[in-house]
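Next comes a concrete protein, fold included:
___
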Amino acid sequence: MSETSPDRMQMLRQLEIFSDLDAPDVSRLENLFRERKYDAEAVIFSEGDAGTSMMIVASGTVRISQKPDADSEEALILLKSGMVFGEMALLEELPRTATAIAHTPVVLLEISREDFLADIEKHPGCGVRILMKLARTLSSRLRETDLKLKTFINLARWI
């Protein structure tokens, strides 16, 4: 299934990180995304791979997992259409922290770190709005993780 340009633009506008952008900015960014298709159970990237791009699930479901060892997998979350993953790769060139697997046949929209950085250099106002949204998203996730860690520590005291 291939997204038409209006569908892709609408999907991008509905994403939190692009919600403050006007139509010309979204249209320009939409052209930077490349469509990627994967069969069910295909590995999109593995934990430890270089993080070089962010992806949006256009259709299908992606499973984000960690593999404690070669024979097991611990699914962390299932991502559905319209959800984003790998966004930390837009900010830093560090290894991926989890494995992404096509849970079903999936179509992704992918933007490379290189293209993203080149665009925000040319359009700094747009870049600031995107980076602020991205910072808020990551800050929120950090607060959630902090709360979970505090809960775990408190529970461990009772064991």
Q: What stands out?
A: Strands lie at 34-38, 43-45, 53-59, 62-66, 74-79, 84-85, 99-102, 106-112. The mean pLDDT is 89.
